[in-house]
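the three lines:
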Amino acid sequence: MPAEPSTAPPAPRPAAGAPLLRCTGLVKAFPGVRALDGVDLEVLPGEVHCLLGQNGAGKSTLIKVLAGAHAPDEGELVWRGEPVRVTTPQAAIDLGIGTIYQELDLVDGLTVADNVELGQERSRAGLSRRREARQRASALLARLGHPEISPSAEVGSLPAAAQQVVSMARALSRDVQLMIMDEPSAVLDSGEVERLFAVVRELTAQGVAVVYISHRLEEVREIGDRITVLKDGRTVASSLDVRDTPTHEVIRLMTGRSVENVFPPRPAPVEDAAPVLSVRDLARRGEFTGVSFDVRAGEVVGLAGLVGAGRSEIVETVYGARRATSGVVEVDGRPLRPGDVAGAVRAGVGLCPEERKSQGLVLGESVVRNISLSSLGRFARGGLVDRGRERAAADEQVAALDVRPRDPERPAGDLSGGNQQKVLLGRWLLRGCRVLLLDEPTRGVDVGARSELYALVRALADSGVAVVVVSSEIEEVLGLSDRVLVVADGEVVHQGPAGELDEHRVLDLVMQGGGARRGSRASTSSPGTSAPPGPTAPPSTTAPGPGAPTTHGSAA
Amino acid sequence: MSTTRTPRTAARRSRSRALALPTALAVAVLLPGCVSNAAPEEESAEAAAAPAAGSGNDAPGDEVVIGFTAPAADHGWMAAVSTAAVAEADGYEDVELRQAEGTNDVGLQISQVETFINEGVDAIVLLPVDGAALTPIALRAMEEGIPVINVDREFSSPFAARSTVLGDNYGMGVSAGTYICEQLGDQPDAVVAEVAGIDSLPLTQDRSQGFADALADCGLDVDNRVAAEFTVESGEAVTANLLQAAPEIDALWNHDDDQGVGVLAAIEAAGRDEFIMVGGAGSANVMRDIQEGGSVVQATVVYPSTQAADGIRLARLIAQGKGLSDLVENEVPRSMTLYAPVVTAENVDDYLPMAFES
Amino acid sequence: MSVSSSSSTTAQPGAALGLPEPSPEPGASGGRRRAGLLSGSAGRSAGLVLALLVLCAVGALTAGERFASVDNLVTVLRAAAVVGIVAVGMTFVITGGGIDLSVGGLVALSSVWATTLATQALAADLHWGVMVFTALAVGTAAGFVNGVVISYGRVVAFIATLAMLVASRGLAEIIAGRRTQIIDGVPGFADFFGASVLGVPVLVLVFGLVAAAGWVLLNRTTFGRRTFAVGGNPEAARLAGIRVQRHTLMLYTLSGLTCGIAAVMLMARTTTGSSTHGTLLELEAIAAVVIGGTLLAGGRGTITGTVLGVLIFTTLTNVFVLNNLSTSVQAVASGAVIVGAVLLQQRVAGRASSGSGRH
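prediction for all of em together
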């Protein structure tokens, strides 16, 4: 990691004075889990304090405790030198703690202005003062660098990034002294991230403290002042200076081990094998046209491109979740019926969809039932499910994939992102697919779990499965795949071995674009794509990254 | 007699045809209406329509147009009311009846009356969905010079009707209670049970009050009371529980013979026959049971389903400017409360023709 | 319930905190499964069982032997049969993320269609089973229509079944001519359904069989599993390869079938078919299902809870009548008992299932 990666001058150092917030020995137990098991955190006024940890380390719980959504079982909160109890969200707001949640807490049916004002509506004689509200919202949005978002637009109709901005505007509309941001950059493109950073710097310059959570270590390096690392509900390192802490040390603290190789090595390509999945001239009106590619057994094919280029649409159409306008999809030489998911599954195709929670899992159902969902017939005799065999089979997957917590009766909704992804993989492993389609398999998954997932995907391919991976992170596509398809504006603009490409080449291809859909609002979402022109590693079979020794899967 | 009761005739017919099973099932499932249940109406209607002899009122007079509106016939008694009224009008050559579609919507009924006013009918027979709600429009009709005959459910203003024909709900209770008093004689500990209709309706409250008052007269009271909803299903359900609540009953009054089908089903299922049962309203089914004997039902109290038919007759007379020929008066009276007679095995033959099919 | 919570709390922390785990003993999973079964049926419904027991205690205290008699028990169970059978079908529909408002109308239509003169004549001719078959066929067919309109026509279930409620009752009125159709001259029908097997009336037996079959279907079969998935997250179910539309169609058809069975029960109880049968049945059934613990939003459902919910309702009415309470007092007490039962259920269930982290 370069010593000075930041392009902007570092935020002014806070005067080492009395801490704004100090937590000691926080404990929060949920039935069966001690989500926080002794957490210490100290935040100084005017600093950007980064909170790091793997999924399930307790970051989200800690935030909820600070925001008053959960009451801690033990431990002490000291705010400006005074011990406080924050028992309700309103109490936190009153203290001056603003929170931007990862799961956006906006009301879809209300306008932007209404959402910004939510909970602090100003009214005269019971009538809301809508014009003033709109003006205030406009001002806040402009300050956040998004004057184009209309305060009277309905929030549900906005793209995810804009919703994030609205959520920030809401937090800013209050008089905050501590702003907590839970993965604010997850859905932002690089330009938007820059604007976000500008806002953060503006806040800190005014003496506001920011607790910043991100899986992208690059960002932490750029914006952060100090780091606190959580692991398994405990603080393993607190208030480290960002500058003095090398990345590998951070990863070691987060994972408890040092990560050497993020991407598993690729085996030699098997050119002569017959294709398992064969896509010919697939098209869907308004989304993509003329998509043709083959995937052989044991091969990983990646789809690279910008968000909105049509990658997810392509895999969902291959799967039958969307009905193709024209074209053929064949598995082992037999064509699939368009728009027939159940038929595709029977033919041996599996999909781990982009939105795990809304498209993949039945969150209220147990891990066992989520894993067995697509293979129920196998455990049934005369329609009756043999639950012993089902459980045993699911146990096997849970153990093989190392799903944590190890309790397969736990509802899938309780699991962290990485573990939820493993449950989905387990579903298809159990079913035994010929073709596996993975859409954004590592979104919201932390560093340690990522390399596990990469290894799993490679192991699957080695066992003879044809794998298709879609990812917004070009580095991930390049590192994981044998072959890469570059998609731009609904067309495949390039196909070739991953080893022949690097990030710049992919970006060039993407920028030249396809001609299928002019005027589509594609936006970059890979932080790597717009990273400042630092020294980029030459194409390599392992992680290419800005000068770093292949140690950061997520921080490209 | 209703064909509802005699499916065996139909059975014999189809047996002779010797239908194969699949075809037969198809007939049963696909063509429910092929043997219509609608036939029996005419029989009883004709009987009801037969003009009473010896009255000068039946002599043909001026042609009159009578508007008639009543609630939806979603209950056997209400259906019988409309049928009888229409049959009555058919019996007079000098009456043209405008019948509005039965409705339970107050607003719709008001507009029906408005239509009658606009058409300039000679008289309106109105059985309101809700007496109070229909009062304003009835007042307007009266102001326009159209006499309104109010049937069964009373208006809230005495000026809204030229003449009012009411059944006697309180009297029903009194008749039932008096009959039970007579039957039980001098047994002050006798257990009396009551299956009421919809409890929130004033008519149910009136019936129960009359019943209680009459029983009190001979030193009895209602020991167990349940309320059903005028449907067979509810009658069965509440009676099943009632029979558990009262292991020994001497007499039981059921307000309504429609729900009475269910009441009897529950009694039969429980194998109880130690008491006498009195019905209410006077359906043909119950009267036939009384006629045949052998049932717990010994009597029923009539709540005449011919009151709208009476309304039609009064409307005709008023429109033609006649009085009731059997009365000394020159004019039709302001109001009439119909008697609630007790029908027993002795007089059932007189009442069966006027009874309604549930 | 205590079994489930203790076993999971002891099993959890180690796994969650990544501590070295004891190798899973073979017995552990078995114990867990037994605990799951407990919390799955009786455990999760413990509050309802408690509420029912309290009701029974009140009944026994206030009405003595009149309440605590075999006869009265049979009366309560017979009363529960009709709404209970419909509620079992309703449990499937609601668990699958839908709602069926048409059940009352379907029961009326089935009962009327099965008791027309034509059907009765045929039944007298061939076998009383003709009437049963007709009722089941009509109910199933109407449920099938519901399902087609909802899953393939993409009409909101609330609207589609509301329309069916109105239409089916109207059709029943047309067929019956608004008359009560009395079943007469069909040998065997009344005898069969009026009989008892070992002291258990056939009606109660049928209810028991339907409930047991429903329990197995929901909890032990692939069909039930898919119902949970479809109700919990239809999109995820679709992407997992489940034919969601076809499954939804089957759920409404199943509900229609239970309406047909309920219509036969009602025909047997009242010896009639009528377009007024099943009035407000949809409300009673939905109330029983929801009180039983089935999530109105779908994804979670329990037949045991539904049966308990129905029993609570019918026992309540029974106790009221035994005590000769006026209908107004009954109404007030019913409201209080419903809320009380649900509160009790939530408390007890919350404690019972806290181990599994459900909310």
